[in-house]
Amino acid sequence: MNTLMQIRSRRCFLQAGVAGSVLLAFSGWFNQPLAAAPRGLSDGEREMLAAIAAVLLDGALPQEAEARRQLVARTVDGIASAVAGLSLATQKEIGELFGLLVHAPGRMLLAGVGRPWREASAADVAGFLAAWRGSRFGLLRSAYAALHDLTFGAWYAQPDSWKALGYSGPPEVF
Amino acid sequence: MEDPIKAGLASGWKHIDASTLAAGQTLEADVVIVGTGAGGGVTADILSAAGLRVVLVEEGPLRSSSDFHMREAEAYPELYQESAARKTADKAINILQGRSVGGSTTVNWTSSFRTPPATLAFWQQRFGLQQLGVEALDPWFAVMEHKLSIHAWDTPPNANNNVLLRGAEKLGIDFGHIRRNVKGCRNLGYCGMGCPTNAKQSMLLTTIPAALRRGATLYSRLRAERLRFSGKRATALDCVALGADGIHPSGLRVHLRARHFVVAGGAIGSPALLLRSGVPDPYRLLGKRTFLHPVVISSALMPERIAGYAGAPQSIYSDHFLQQGPLDGPLGFKLETPPLHPVLFATTLQGFGAEHARLMREFPQVNALLALLRDGFHPDSQGGQVRLGKDGLPVLDYPLNDVIWEGARRALLAMAEIQFAAGARWVTPVHETAPGYSSWAEAQRGLAELPLAPLLCRVVSAHVMGGCGMADTPARGVVDHRGRHFWLGNLSVHDGSLFPTSLGANPQLSIYALAARNASLLAAELAGQAPPPIL
């Protein structure tokens, strides 16, 4: 990435930060009909979470495309069931976050990701995550933390992921 | 492996899983107890032994050793509030709190400390709790230690705890061995997922079975919604049955009437129940002064294999940094270690992508230390506040202010120094922008400059205290030294929400002893006998 682009994209993220935290603060109002009841993930949300999980888990996922796709899909399933295990109030908050990110205005203004999630480059997604992680707005840092914890929780809950850690699982007890 | 709870249920214990009810119910008892953790369990045991008819109300499910498979993916959603991801309102503090029969005692790490004498002295001076001196409480600690097999644990510490021991020894810092409430512990290291071998002497295995054998009734998946009162007396408790998922209300209600009500739903749940009920609170103290022992974490890569998932999670502690200044001065902190399991570690560890994956691959070499900040003593450490969300469920605000961050910085420095002294090759605080340090000198420089702010520096808690504080007068507390509510004569609070400050030690034994004392006084009163010689 050349310097001009870096500067441009940084400015983009700064603007996204301000607009984003305002949007997030009002997300309950934006998402009223969507977030009224707990629900499974929509296709759009699955695509968004898959794009984010693929970047968060980079380095832990296998290189081979099909295996990678399957494991990302399984992680997204894990996120869905983790969300379903939270209190209704927290499910509503997570629903609001997902609801905002999944729609084009939220994705572009809030996350600074120009292309639809399924087409977004890893660099774009990583840039968005890094910007939220270091944002001066607590609301965006908390949203990053939610995506981080849900994704890593879903991934490392799977026994398949333990081998890379040198962890053989819990002992046998009789 | 025998499951004594399943065996007890088969023998006819009265357990009602409210998610299976076909219709609403009304029940009458001598005493209704909300919560089955450290406070509720001990209270149920003592009151039922006095011949009183007791009903216990638990929001979480009943799970026991045959359900405990040492799998985070099962244990967190089943046994913890919010799947082990309960948070303060601003999400800056993650709170580990139990939510099944036995409460947090089912999933805690077994560390057992008496209330520090300095804490009791502070309560006497500032809150007029003359009755709660070291000598007065001594027999209550002794009786609970005996009952729960709390003893010095002579198995060598695991490698994770050994880092704390070795570092402290090198630096000449005081440390000690943690006493544990275990019997025949196999040193597996999975206490946080429910003890699969029934070694942990939690409420699930001790006091609650004792009460059930005497005919007590236990409801699980039943949420205490509102206490009804008339004049100066509580009259009934309205409860909401939860569905099989333990989250959605099923639509059925249970109505419980009693002579006396004991609230022991933990320091978030108890104040919330009383707030929802609108009990008299003329001084606006309810839900205030909630303390968390805010915890900051330091991770290290050690040259040797640590395997922080294996072996008793907490066996070594240091109180050195609790003793460096006045109790109400800059915040002191207690040092301990956490168990390291894949989900808990990966979600807590900062960063993502290749950086995160690289650290995860070093998992067997990771040591982590915890610093528990002693909140509630310094004039600028007033803790947090429990309030009600739109759905009537509790929300906890806990501002992380300068006095907390100043202590956090000293704590991160102290932990890094200990880890390097123990031979660490790399140390990082759990913090979003810390680059990690390869030497103590580098860490000293880096940590001095590190920006400390909510959601930048990871803060966690496993100890929720306060919110229904004890004091000598209603102007300073919600309840008196016996846990009796100042305004409703037949209402008591028997859990960690009693504490007027944090403790500076893991709370389970303090709750056990105080609940034993208060329940014994209550039992004598309700049974029309002379009170035990306590004062």
CATH fold label of the domain at 159-180 and 290-461 in chain B: Cholesterol Oxidase, domain 2
The rounded distance between the terminal residues' Cα atoms of chain A is 58 Å
What is the number of helices of chain A?
Answer: 9
SSE-based structural type of chain B = alpha/beta
Which protein chains are joined by the largest interface, and how many residues does each one contribute?
A: A-B, 42 and 52 residues
- In what range is the share of β-strand residues of chain A? under 5%
- Average predicted local confidence, pLDDT of chain B: 97
Q: Largest sheet of chain A, described in full?
A: none
CATH C-level label of the domain at 159-180 and 290-461 in chain B: Alpha Beta
In helices, the fraction of residues of chain A equals 55-70%
Radius of gyration of chain B: 22 Å
CATH architecture of the domain at 159-180 and 290-461 in chain B: 2-Layer Sandwich
Which oligomeric state applies? heterodimer
Largest sheet of chain B: 8 strands, mixed
